[in-house]
Amino acid sequence: MKRVFDRESLYLFSDEEIMNEICRRIRLMRQNSSLSQTDMAKEAGVSLSTIKRIESGDIKNISFLILLRILRAGGMIGGVAQLIDDMPEPPFKNNKRGYFTKRNRE
Asked: Are 104 and 98 in contact (CB under 8 A)?
Protein backbone atom coordinates (compact mmCIF):
# COMPACT_ATOMS: atom_id res chain seq x y z
CA MET A 1 0.00 0.00 0.00
CA LYS A 2 1.37 3.38 -1.04
CA ARG A 3 1.74 5.94 1.72
CA VAL A 4 0.13 9.26 0.95
CA PHE A 5 1.61 12.21 2.75
CA ASP A 6 -0.81 15.01 2.03
CA ARG A 7 -2.57 17.67 4.03
CA GLU A 8 -5.43 15.38 5.08
CA SER A 9 -3.56 12.15 5.76
CA LEU A 10 -0.51 13.69 7.41
CA TYR A 11 -2.18 13.57 10.82
CA LEU A 12 -2.42 9.78 10.57
CA PHE A 13 1.36 9.40 10.72
CA SER A 14 3.62 9.60 13.75
CA ASP A 15 6.22 12.33 14.02
CA GLU A 16 8.93 9.71 13.42
CA GLU A 17 7.24 8.51 10.22
CA ILE A 18 6.96 12.06 8.94
CA MET A 19 10.60 12.78 9.80
CA ASN A 20 11.72 9.59 8.04
CA GLU A 21 9.78 10.64 4.95
CA ILE A 22 11.34 14.12 5.04
CA CYS A 23 14.80 12.54 5.32
CA ARG A 24 14.05 10.26 2.37
CA ARG A 25 12.83 13.19 0.29
CA ILE A 26 15.89 15.26 1.13
CA ARG A 27 18.07 12.43 -0.22
CA LEU A 28 15.96 12.22 -3.40
CA MET A 29 16.02 16.01 -3.78
CA ARG A 30 19.82 16.00 -3.60
CA GLN A 31 20.14 13.11 -6.04
CA ASN A 32 17.71 14.74 -8.50
CA SER A 33 19.77 17.93 -8.29
CA SER A 34 22.89 15.92 -9.19
CA LEU A 35 24.62 17.18 -6.06
CA SER A 36 27.05 15.04 -4.11
CA GLN A 37 26.62 14.89 -0.36
CA THR A 38 29.76 16.99 -0.05
CA ASP A 39 28.41 19.64 -2.42
CA MET A 40 25.07 19.71 -0.59
CA ALA A 41 26.84 20.13 2.75
CA LYS A 42 28.93 23.02 1.41
CA GLU A 43 25.94 24.68 -0.25
CA ALA A 44 23.84 24.37 2.91
CA GLY A 45 26.66 25.36 5.26
CA VAL A 46 26.42 22.16 7.31
CA SER A 47 28.80 19.29 7.89
CA LEU A 48 29.03 16.29 5.59
CA SER A 49 28.19 14.03 8.54
CA THR A 50 24.95 15.99 9.07
CA ILE A 51 23.90 15.34 5.47
CA LYS A 52 24.80 11.66 5.76
CA ARG A 53 22.91 11.28 9.04
CA ILE A 54 19.82 13.05 7.71
CA GLU A 55 19.74 11.01 4.50
CA SER A 56 20.11 7.74 6.39
CA GLY A 57 17.35 8.74 8.81
CA ASP A 58 19.84 8.46 11.65
CA ILE A 59 19.04 11.88 13.04
CA LYS A 60 16.45 12.43 15.70
CA ASN A 61 16.43 16.22 15.87
CA ILE A 62 17.06 18.45 12.91
CA SER A 63 17.10 22.11 13.80
CA PHE A 64 14.68 24.13 11.75
CA LEU A 65 17.55 26.35 10.61
CA ILE A 66 19.48 23.36 9.24
CA LEU A 67 16.36 22.07 7.50
CA LEU A 68 15.80 25.47 5.87
CA ARG A 69 19.45 25.61 4.73
CA ILE A 70 19.22 22.16 3.17
CA LEU A 71 15.90 22.91 1.46
CA ARG A 72 17.32 26.18 0.10
CA ALA A 73 20.47 24.42 -1.16
CA GLY A 74 18.33 21.82 -2.90
CA GLY A 75 16.02 24.39 -4.46
CA MET A 76 13.00 23.33 -2.39
CA ILE A 77 12.60 26.27 -0.03
CA GLY A 78 9.17 26.85 -1.58
CA GLY A 79 7.95 23.89 0.45
CA VAL A 80 7.72 26.08 3.52
CA ALA A 81 5.56 28.72 1.84
CA GLN A 82 2.45 27.69 3.76
CA LEU A 83 4.22 28.42 7.02
CA ILE A 84 4.87 32.01 6.05
CA ASP A 85 1.74 32.87 4.06
CA ASP A 86 -0.06 35.96 5.27
CA MET A 87 -2.06 35.12 8.36
CA PRO A 88 -5.10 37.13 9.36
CA GLU A 89 -4.56 39.43 12.32
CA PRO A 90 -6.23 38.30 15.55
CA PRO A 91 -9.36 40.27 16.43
CA PHE A 92 -7.71 41.37 19.68
CA LYS A 93 -4.37 43.07 20.17
CA ASN A 94 -2.01 42.74 23.12
CA ASN A 95 -2.13 45.58 25.60
CA LYS A 96 0.96 46.75 27.50
CA ARG A 97 0.67 43.90 30.02
CA GLY A 98 0.47 41.25 27.29
CA TYR A 99 -3.23 40.53 27.75
CA PHE A 100 -5.66 40.37 24.87
CA THR A 101 -8.38 42.96 25.09
CA LYS A 102 -11.31 43.98 22.92
CA ARG A 103 -10.62 47.66 23.57
CA ASN A 104 -7.50 47.60 21.40
CA ARG A 105 -9.37 46.75 18.21
CA GLU A 106 -8.59 48.89 15.24
From this structure: no
